[in-house]
Amino acid sequence: MNKLVVFIGLALSAVSCPYARAQETVQQVVQEEVTISGIVTDVNDEPLPGVSVSILNVPGLGARTDNAGKYSIKVQRFQTLVFSFVGYDKQEILFNTQMEINVKMQESGASVIDQVVVTATGNQRRIAVTGAITTVDVERLKSNPSSSMADALAGQVPGILAMQSSGRPGEVSEFWIRGISTFGASNSALILVDGFERDMNEINVEDVESFTLLKDASATAIYGSRGANGVVLINTKRGKEGKININAKVEGFRSSFTQLPKFADGYTYASMANEAKTTRNQEPLYSQAELEILRLGLDPDLLPNVDWMDILLRDATYSNRSQLSLSGGGRTARYYVGGSYHDQQGMYKVDQAMQDYNTNSNYKRYTYRMNVDMDITKTTLLRAGVSGSLRKENDPGVGTKAIWTSLMGYNPVMMPLTYSDGRIPSWTGNDDNLNPWVQGTMTGYRENWDNNIQTTLNLEQKLDFITSGLRFVGRFGYDTKNWNSIYRIKRPETWRIERFRNQGELVFSRTAEEMKMIQASSSEGTRRDFFEWDLLYNSNLGRHHFGAVAKYMQSSEVFTQGLGTELKNGIAKRIQGFSGRVSYNFGSRYFADFNFGYTGSENFHKDHRFGFFPAFSAAWNVAEESFLKDATWVDMFKIRYSHGKTGNDRLGDERFPYLYSIDQMTGGGYQFGDYQSSNSWAGMRYKQISSPDVSWEVATKKDLGFDFSFLNDKISGVLDLFHERRDGIYMRRDYLPTYVGLGSEKVRENNKDVYYRWPKANVGVVKSRGFDGNLNIKQKFNAVDLTFRGNITYSKNEILERDEQNTIYAYSLEEGHRVDQARGLVALGLFKDYDDIRNSPTQTYGEVMPGDIKYKDVNGDGVVNDADRVAIGATRRPNLIYGFGLSAKWKGIDVNVLFQGAGKSTYFINGSTVYMFQGGDGWGNVLMDLANSNRWILGVNEDPNAEYPRLTYGNNSNNNRASTYWLRNGAYMRLKNLDIGYSLPKHLVNRARLNNVRLFFVGTNLLTFSKFKLWDPEMGNPDGKEYGLSKTLSLGLSVNL
Amino acid sequence: MEVNKTNRRCWPIQGIWVALIVLCCVQCKDVGSEEQAVAYDPSKPLLVTDFLPKEGGAGSNLVIYGDNFGNDPSQVKVVIGGKTAKVVSVQGNALYCIVPSGAFDGDVQVYVMDESGEEELAHGEAPAVFVYEKKWLVSDLVGTYYEIGSQFEEKEGPFGDCGAFKEMTWFTLDPKNPNHLYVAAESNSARKIDLEEKYAYYFKTQGVGRKSVMTWRLDGDQDLVTAENHASDTKNAFYVFSRSSNFTSSQVVDRVARGVNGAAVHPVNGEMYYSIFRAGEIWRYDFATGESKLAFANPFPSTAVFIVIHPSGEYAYFTNYEHHYILRSDYDPIAKTFKRPYPVAGSAQSDGYVDGVGTNARLRNPAQGVFVKNPDYESLGGEQYDYYFCDQYNHCIRKLTSLGRVSTFAGRGNNGAEGYANGDLRLEARFNGPKAIAYDEARKCFYIGDKNNWIIRKIAREEE
Fold first, then answer.
1. Smallest Cα distance from B21 to chain A, Å
2. Does residue A330 have a pLDDT over 80?
3. Which of chain B's residues have a Cβ under 8 Å away from the Cβ of A288?
4. How far apart are the first and last CA of chain B?
5. Which of A61, A909, B16, B176 could be stapled to A914 by a disulfide with Cβ–Cβ 3.0 to 4.6 Å?
6. Do B147 and A999 touch (CB under 8 A)?
7. Domains in chain B, ordered, with CATH?
8. Is the pLDDT of residue A4 over 60?
9. Could you tell me which chain A residue has the CA closest to the CA of B22?
10. A991 touches chain B (CB under 8 A)
11. Mapping DSSP to helix (H, G, I), strand (E, B) and coil, where does residue A219 land?
C-alpha cells in the first residue's frame, strides 16, 4: 500500500508537470473525442478482466475490461489514460493518436528497497531508516473481531508485549512497547493519530492507512516528552486521485467464552465441605440425611443444586460490524469518507419478559472520518480531517465486576434461583452478593457514553523558491471529548433463609428491601488543542543526501466538565517543545542521523521544566558495498545502531509536585481566651510539601538492529537488540527518617490512601534489556503463494534503585528484581506427618497439620515467617510474546493462520475461588479441578506432593498465602486467528459491476495450549472473578467497487 | 414469472447479505426447565422400602425411600409413631419429611391421599422402625420472628401475639412466684412474663432509664431491685419495687453509681454487689446500714461486669463482657465480702470460640449466666452445680463446670454462626446474640433472651 502512495505521488509529479504546459498550447486544437480500444493482459499475456480504465483528472466511472481483457473508452487527445487493478502496478499512458492501446500490467510485488516507512518527521524510505521502527501491515489487524486494534497487536507486531485481562465488551488489551521499563506512574506508549495524541480504541481499523511503532530513542527523541515508553503512529486513509473507490464490509460474529472456571455440582460441594470439616476434627456441615436430600433434589429451597454460570451466561452471543468508505478525487482535491458501526454483545442472558431496556452487557461504536486534501496552489496542499466516534457501553445495574464476584462466590447449594414461594434469594444486600440472575436481570442498567470529535488541519507549503527541497508544514488539531455515565438502577426485595427448617417451615429474613428505579449521572469532558510547525529540508548532491527537520510543538488539555471544586483541575495541562533532526547518507550506503527534543512540561518547576533529549543513530547498508553489490542473493543487509534519550513527564493523577499547600490542623489548637471564654485557634501546617527539584524521568536507550532481505525478498526480517536504562523515576520518599521532621502522615480518605507531607523525588532506576524481531519467508509452489511469518519480543527488566526500606535480607529488596516481581514463600510440598512438622522449622502462620503446606526457611533462622518471602517466578504481565503464522494463496482462496503465545508470565491464584471454603460461611465455590485432582485426603491420599492441601473449612492462614504452591505458569500458545477467504472469480464479479468480492471466515482464539487450565491463561487473573475472553467465529463479506 | 436478469446475476451476493443479516439477528434461548416427577399411579402399589437416618429426634430430617409416592406433598401423609409428620417434598421414589415430636413408637406409615387430602388411597409401612430419641430441644417460648425487621411491634399480649422483645439484657425469676419471669431490656420496656397464664405484660418502671439488671432483696418481702445504667456522677442507680404494691411503686436507694451493668444480692447475708463501668470496680452495698464500700477492683476498667452469685453464697462469677472472660471470686465469710478474683474461663487478651479448660477456652462477649444443679454430681459430693452462660457473639449457650471445663451447650458456636432455628441443641438450633438466661427449677428448662432475634427461647428436654 505504501508503495502505491509513493508511486502515485511520483507519477503525478513526473507525468502531469511536463505535460501541463504542452496541454495549454494544444488545447484548442484537439477538442473532439475519439473512441479507442485495446486489450489489457498480464505479463504472461493472459487477458485481465475488470481492469479499471480512466482518464486522468476527468471525473466519471471510466471503463472496465471485459472477460477477454478488452476495453473501449472515449478520450481526447493529450489526455492520459490510467490503468489500475488491485494487485498490479498502475500504468499511465498519454493518448496522442494511436487508436489501439494494449497494456501489459505488472504485478505489484513491492520490494523491500522501495518500501516507505512513516516516521516522526514524515515518510522515509525503508532503506534510509536508522532507528528501530516497525511498520505494521494493517491488513493483518483487520481480521480481529475486537473493536480495538490493540487486541490484534499481540503476536503480530514485533516489539509489543500485550495482554487482555478482561473480555467484557468494550474492554481492550493493554500493551507495552518493549515491555515495562519503569515502576513510575505511566508505562504506556504515546499514541499519535494523524500526528496528535489521541485514543487508539476509537479508530476503525479500516480507516487506517499506516500503523508504525517507534521503539528506540532515535525514532522518538523528537517527541522528547512522553516518548520514553515508545510511540505508535497511526495515519488514516486519504483520498487518491482517480475514479471513486467504494469499499463495504459486513461481518457477523458468534462469540463464546474460551475457558471459564468449572465448578463442582451441589452434592460434590457438600461432600467436600464435610470433608473439610471432618479432616480438621470438626462436625460435618451436612448430615447424612441432608446429603441424601441434596442428592435426590428433595429440598429445592434449602438444598438446591444450581449451576449459576449456566443460569446467567449464554452459550454464545451474536454481534456484528459493518463499514463503508468512499474515496477518490481529482487533481485539485481528493477525499476519503468512511463510517463504521460495531456492535459487540455480551454474554449475559436477559429476562425475556422484560422488553423495556437491555440489561446485557454490550458495546456499540459508531465512527466517521472525512479527510480532504486540497491543492490550493501548485505548491500548497491543505489537508483537513474531521473524525468522530460515539461509543456506548451497556452493563447490568450492578456492573460486571459485581456479577463475576457473585458468579465465583455462589455455590450450587447456597441458594435457589427463586424460593418456592416466589421470593428472591440473595446472600446479603450488597451489590456483589446478590444472586447472579438478579444482578444480571433485575438491577436495571448502566450506560457509558464516550463522544469524541477531532479536527485536524494540515498545511504544507513547498518552499522551493527559497531553496529547492525546503518545505513547511503547519498542523493544528482540536479535539473534544465527552464522557457520560448514566445509571438507572433498582433492586428487588431479597431474602435469605436460615440454615435449617423450623418444624419443616422455612425461616426467612430479608436481606434488602426493594429499591425502585433511581437515576444517577456523571460526566467528564476535556478539550485538547495542538499546534505544530515543521520545516523540512531535503537535498541530494550526487551521492550525498541531506535531510533536516526543525519542529515546534505545543499542546494543551483542559477539563471542560466534571472539574469538581479543586481549582487546579481547571488549569490546562500544557506541553511545549522544540525538536530537530539532521540526517545524512552517502550513496544509500552509510547513514547518520542526529535528532533531539527539547521539551517542557508544566508539571515541573520552571528551573527543571525543560528536558533535553538528544539521540544519534547510524546505519550501514552492507549490501551496497562493492563486495556484495553483485551478489544477487542479497537485496538488503543493513546494520543499525542508535543511542539516545527520551523523557516521560507523566506523574499519574498528580500535578504540580513543586508546589506546597497549607492547611489548618485538625483537632487540638491553641487557646488564647481568658478564663471561661473561648478563643481557640488551630495551627497551620503544610498539607503538601513542595518537591521543587522533581523533573523528567529519562530513558537512555540503545538499540542494535539488523535489517535483511535475501534471495529476491524470499527471506526477509529484522532483529533488534535493545538496552534501556530509566533514570529519575518519580516516586514518593517513603523511607525518610522521622528526624527529618516532616510529620509525614498517611490518611484514608474516600477509600483512598492520601499521603500528607510526603516529599517526592526522581529516585528510581530501572534497566531493561531484550530483543525483538521478525522473519518472513515467501515461497511460491506452482499456483500457491506461501508466506511464513514469525515474530518475537522479549524484555527483561531489573530495578537498580528505588526508595525502599533497608533490610538485612538483600533478597527481600525490590532492588535487583523485576518490576512487579511475584514474591512469596517457597513451598516444599505438604507435611507428611507430625514427625515432619516437629522436625521442620516452626511456621508462624497458625497451627499446621499433616497435609498443610510446608515452607522453606530461606534465611535459616529456624522460623518460617514473612522474612522468608523471596522473589519467585516472574511477573503477571508476560515478558515474552511471540507469534508465527502461515498464509497461503491459491487462485481466489486465501488462508491465514496465526499462532500467538506468551511466556515468562507467572501469577498467584488466590481468593475464594481457589482457597476453597475460605470464608467458612458458605460463600465460595469448589472448582471441578479441586474435586477431581490429586488432593490430600486424610487416610486416603496422604501424598506430600498433592496438588491441593488438606481442606479447611474457614480460612487457613498457613496454606492460603502467596507461595510457589499457588504460583502458576501463565505461559500459553493459542491459535489466535484462522482467516479463510474466498474472492469470487473476476468474471462473475465484474458482471455485477463490482471490482472485488471476498467472502471470509475468521476464527479467533480457537485453540489454547497452556499448563494453566482453570481459566483463560492470558488474563493473568488470580481468582477468575473477571469476564472471560472470547472465542469468536465470524463470517463476513467485503465488496469493493 | 419473469425474473429480472440483473437480479439473477446478483443472487449469491444478496443471499449472503440476507444470511448475514439473519445471523446477526439470532438471539439466545432462555433458562431451562426443571424435571418433573411422575404423579401417583393408582394402578401400581405404594411401596415403602427404607428410610434415612435410622434414628433421630423431633425435628430431624427424614428421607423415606419407596415407590409410587407421586409428586404432590399435599397428597402424601406420613405418620411416625402415631404423629403426623410435616412432608416437605415428594418425588416418586423418595420423600422428605420432618420427624414430629413425640413419635416414640417410631413406626413409619406413608399414605397417599385423594385430592381433598382426606381420603386415603394407598398405604405403605416401612419394614423397619425409626428409633426415636428423646433429647434436649430448643423452641420458642414467646415472641414473634420478624422477616422484615422494620415491621416489628412491641406490645402486651398472650404468647403468640405479643410482638418483639428487644434489647433483653437480664432475666430473673421471682423467688416467691417462679411463674413470673422478669426481663430487663435497657431503654425498652421491662417485661413480666407469666409462664402459667402464658401472657406477656409490660413491667412498668416509671422514671427508670436504661434497666441493666434486676435482682431480689433477701430480707423482708424479697422486693425487686432494678439498676439503672446511667452516665451521671450524681444520680442514684437503684430502685426497689415493693412486693406489697405488687411491684407498682418504687423507692429509690440513696446510692449514687454510674454505669451499673451487674448487680446481685448475696443469698446468705443479703448485701448487694454491683459493678461500675468506668472504674471497673465492684462495690458492696449493705441495705441494712446503707453503707457502700469497694469490694475489689476489677482487673480492667471500662468494661461491663455481670455478677452471678452461687446459690450457696460461697463464690461468685464476675463476667467481663468486653474482655471475653469470666473471673471467680470466693466469699470471705468473716469479712462478709468477696475477695480478689481470679480467671476461670476465657482469656482477657483474646476473643474466639474454643471449647476447653479454663483460660484455654475462648469466649466472645460472655453475658448472663445461671447456676444449675446437676444430679450427676450428687453421688460425688462436693460441688453440685454447673454454670450455663450466654456467649453472646459466639451465638451460643455454653456450660462451665466447677472443674473449669467450658463446652458448648446449645447453638452452633463461633462468630458469624448466628441464625434462628429450633430443634436439636447443637445440630440445628441457632441463636442470634443471646444475652440473658434463666433456669426454671419447677419446669426444668432454660429461658434464653435471644437478643437479636427478639424472642425468648426455651431449652427443655422432651418428655413422654
1. 8
2. yes
3. 52-53
4. 94
5. A909
6. no
7. 6-132 (2.60.40.10), 136-461 (2.120.10.30)
8. no
9. A252
10. yes
11. helix
Give the residue carrying C-alpha cell 435457589: A416
Assess contact for A1032 and A1004: CB atoms under 8 A. yes
Mutation test of the interface with chain A: which of B18, B23, B33, choosing the one with the most A Cβ atoms within 10 A?
B23
Distance of alpha carbon A477 from alpha carbon A385, whole angstroms: 9
Residues of A in contact with B25 (CB under 8 A): 318
Is B121 within 8 Å of B40 (Cβ atoms)? yes
CB contact residues (below 8 A), chain A span 895-924, against chain B: 920-921
Residue with cell 486540497: A374
Cell 467458612 sits on residue: A920
Q: Are strands A508-512 and A494-497 parallel, antiparallel or unpaired?
A: antiparallel
> How many Cβ contacts (< 8 angstroms) between chains A and B?
124
Closest Cβ opposite residue A314 in set B28, B53, B423 = B28
Q: How far apart are CA A129 and CA A583, in angstroms?
A: 10
Q: What number of other Cβ atoms are within 10 A of residue B4's Cβ? A: 8
Q: What mean pLDDT is predicted for residues B22-39?
A: 49
The interface pTM score, or ipTM, of the predicted complex is 0.76
Distance from CA of A296 to the nearest CA of B (A): 8
User: Phi first, then psi: what are they for A312, rounded to 5°?
Assistant: -95, -30
| Chain B partners within 8 Å of A499 (Cβ) | 419, 421, 430
Within 10 A of B42 (CB to CB), how many other CB atoms are there?
A: 12
Q: Nearest by CB to A288, from B26, B53, B421: name it.
A: B53
Q: Is B24 on the interface with A (CB under 8 A)?
A: yes
A504 touches chain B (CB under 8 A): yes
Q: Which residue has the cell 487493478?
A: A85
- Residue with the three cell numbers 556484495: A628
Q: State which residue of chain B sits closest to A1035, comparing Cα positions.
A: B20
Per residue in A344-379, pLDDT (tens digit) is 999 999 888 877 888 899 999 999 999 999 999 989
Do the Cβ atoms of A815 and A800 come closer than 8 Å? yes
pLDDT for A436-484, tens place per residue?
Answer: 999 999 999 999 999 999 999 999 999 988 988 899 999 999 999 999 9
To which residue does cell 482487673 refer?
B299
Contact B28 A504 (CB under 8 A): no
* Shortest CA gap A373–chain B (Å): 34
Residues 274-303 of B with CB under 8 A from A: none
A1039–B13 C-beta distance less than 8 A: yes
For A520, other C-beta atoms within 10 Å of its C-beta total 10
Q: Is B13 on the interface with A (CB under 8 A)?
A: yes
Q: Which of residues 1008-1027 of A touch B (CB under 8 A)?
A: none
B145 touches chain A (CB under 8 A): yes
Run of H or E residues at A886 = strand A880-890
Model confidence pTM above 0.90: no
Which 3-state string (H, E, C) describes chain B?
A: CCCCHHHHHHHHHHHHHHHHHHHHHCCCCCCCCCCCCCCCCCCCCCEEEEEECCEECCCCEEEEEEECCCCCHHHEEEEECCEEEEEEEEECCEEEEECCCCCCCCEEEEEEECCCCCCEEEEEEEEEECEECCCEEEEEEECCCCCCHHHCCECCEECCCCECCCCCCEEEECCCCCCEEEEECECCCEEEEECCCCEEEEECCCCCCCEEEEEECCCCCCCEEEEECCCCCCCEEEEEECCCCCCCCEEEEEEECCCEEEEEECCCCCCEEEEECCCCEEEEEECCCCEEEEEEECCCCCCCEEEEECCCCCEEEEEECCCCEEEEEEEECCCCEECCCEEEEECCCCCCCECEEHHHCECCCEEEEEEEECHHHHHHCCCCEEEEEEEHHHCEEEEECCCCEEEEEECCCCCCCCCCECEECCCCCECCCEEEEEEECCCCEEEEEECCCCEEEEEEECCC
